[in-house]
Amino acid sequence: MNERESGVRIAYLDCFSGISGDMFVAAFLDSGVKLDELRELLERLPIGGWKIRTERTRRGSLAGTRFIVETEESAGPHARTKHGHAGERRLPEVLDVIRASSLPESVKETSSRVFSELAAAEAWVHGVGPGEVHFHEVGAIDSVIDIVGAACCLHLSGVEKLYASTLSVGKGEIESRHGTLPLPAPAAAKLLAGKSVRMLDVEAELVTPTGAALVSALASQDAVPSPFRLDSVGHGAGTNQLAALPNILRVFVGACEAAPAELGWVDVIETTIDDMNPQIYSFLQERLFQMGALEVFLTPVQMKKGRPGSLLTVLSEPGLARKLAREVFEQTTTLGLRVTTQQRMELSRSLEEVETRFGRIRVKVPVGFPDRASPEYEDCARVAREAGVPVAVVLDAARTAWR
Question: Is the previous residue joined to 227 through a cis bond, with omega within 30 degrees of 0?
Fold first, then answer.
């Protein structure tokens, strides 16, 4: 279906009974994503020892689909890679597995963002650096398949914008490799900071760390654009049989008519700094982008007593400011931030593909301004590295193909 005719593809997660990674994938499979297509993408990961399947089931009064990852018994809970490395990994190893795959670039980027969010939360919980976190459960093969599978589902369904409802959170305790932990699990609770939640009188793990990371990294809780065309609904079943409510995640998949320009809002965080090693800015910028920042930039300024300094500006979707501000405080020497909400006008755009002599490249096309079509830089950079040619040559080839 042509993106110009179909509008912007969106999905809305109705988390009335929480969310987990397998529920996310199951809901999209129930909404129409083909299991064989998902399997074909996941088989591009350089890891073996797993199989996936689905089954129809009931949770309370509702029927839904379960997504099941089966691992080789010999590998136990931590399957091995095709190169024989144990599946209990740190963040850099997980990211290396994703980068080494032949998955679409959008899937790699989405998966890496979710894992980075999860690592940052686990690091905060355990008081270590993100790169030192041992993904005992999350680095295991089934969790890798859940997170990468979720990214694949977004890719296969063409979803460009993901929204989520208020998240229902349970109470009680859960046994883990770190001992008995309260619910929601500490990493999940950290990831839910800044999100809208409601505490239910249900003793069960409703929101898992993986589910929280998917919402934190990918979804907005702002009002869903209205009206939108509802194309399909999916029910993803969790593992709990609850007396209070069905353990189901619903997903609504559809499309919004793309207007020439959309009015929206952004949170703006600013601070001026004149006493910090400038090398830190590069690391901070990378972290903020991983956490969902839209823009991060520096402006040279002259501060009191004539000292040269930098104005740090961070733009984000509404609702992320508190989380991003905390990261700025942790990474820099600043003692105060200015936070404002500003209205912005943004051209709607579709994402199309063109065929070049170097291969297929995605092109962003602003609605109403097709002459401003812009090739996706990451696609062009990847193709340029593979072909051994300057990236400018690939960019020109993509623009020519579009014209």
Answer: yes
Q: Would you call 111 exposed, middle or buried from its count of C-beta atoms within 10 A (0-12, 13-18, 19+)? A: buried
AA letter at 12: Y
Q: What is the pTM of this model?
A: 0.66
**CB-count burial class (<10 Å; 0-12, 13-18, 19+) for 347:** middle
**How far apart (Å, rounded) are the C-alpha atoms in residues 362 and 325?**
33
Please enumerate in sequence order all residues whose Cβ is within 8 A of that of 38, keeping only pairs 6 or more positions apart, or say none: 25, 29, 52, 149, 152, 153, 156
Residue 172: which region, alpha, beta or left (left: phi > 0; alpha: psi -120 to 50)? left
Nearest partner of 402 among 377, 382, 372, judged by Cα: 372
Q: Please spell the DSSP secondary structure of 197-209, one letter per residue.
A: EEEEEEES--B-H
Examine the pLDDT at 181 and tell me if it is beyond 50.
yes
Q: Is 84 helix (H, G, I), strand (E, B) or coil?
A: coil
Q: How many of the other CB atoms lie within 10 Å of CB of 112? A: 20
Question: Which pairing describes strands 261-273 and 308-316: parallel, antiparallel, or unpaired?
Answer: antiparallel
Measured in degrees and rounded to the nearest 5, phi and psi for residue 86 equal: -65, 150
C-beta of residue 212 within 8 angstroms of C-beta of residue 188: yes
Strands 167-171 and 197-203: parallel
Cα distances (angstroms) measured from residue 97 to each of 22, 101, 103? 20, 7, 11
pLDDT tens figures, 101-135: 999 999 999 999 999 999 899 888 878 776 666 65
CB 21 within 8 Å of CB 210: yes
Residue 375 pLDDT more than 80?
A: yes
Please say whether the beta carbons of 40 and 289 come within 8 A.
no
